[in-house]
Amino acid sequence: DDQEQKYEQDQEVEVELPDDLPGNLPDDFAASIARRRTILAFVRTSVFLLVLVYMPIVKVALRLTKCVTVGDKRVAFFHPAVSCDDGMYDLVLAIAVSLLIALGAGLPLAVLWFWHRARRVQEPRPAVVSVLFSTYV
């Protein structure tokens, strides 16, 4: 009976651990890790969506840049209802060229930059390019 009471008393004892033990993270550090994970999840999602829409956007932008002459008018080759002589077409062409420069050339250049950055490091660091490949896993 005495042993059971002693065992129950031992089970009820609350032990306070000091804050400086290994494994106890300060709240601001834990919050910064959570923020970093949230940002990384956002970046991974953004890269996935960018890779997903890359080809359709570049395809449409390239199609808008090709004009042919039909009779006395210049029309877009893939969209004959669009006149290349119209002022609105100039605006659309400027947007298409901007997309081709930013997305059409920007994404491949960004991939090459990440690969070059990963290759410069002595030891392989998969975290540097993991954003590029984690969307496929």
Summarize the structure.
With 137 residues, this protein is mainly alpha-helical. The protein has helices at residues 2-12, 27-65, 87-120, 126-134, and strands spanning 67-70, 73-76.
Topology:
Layout (H helix, E strand, L loop, with lengths): L1 H11 L14 H39 L1 E4 L2 E4 L10 H34 L5 H9 L3
Antiparallel strand pairs: 1-2
Structure description:
The protein is mainly alpha-helical and 137 residues long. 68% of the residues lie in helices and 6% in strands. It is built from four helices and two strands, in the order H-H-E-E-H-H. It has a two-stranded antiparallel sheet with strand order 1-2. The model has no long low-confidence stretch (mean pLDDT 77).
> What is the distance, rounded to the nearest whole angstrom, between the alpha carbons of the first and last residues?
59 Å
Report the helical percentage.
Answer: 55-70%
| Major beta sheet, strand line-up | 1-2
Return the structural class.
mainly alpha
Largest sheet: 2 strands, antiparallel
Q: What form results from the Cα inertia axes?
A: elongated
Question: Beta-strand level of the residues, as a percent range?
Answer: 5-15%
Instruction: Report the total helices.
Output: 4
Poorly predicted spans? none
The counted number of beta strands is 2
Q: What is the radius of gyration?
A: 29 Å
Mean pLDDT reading: 77
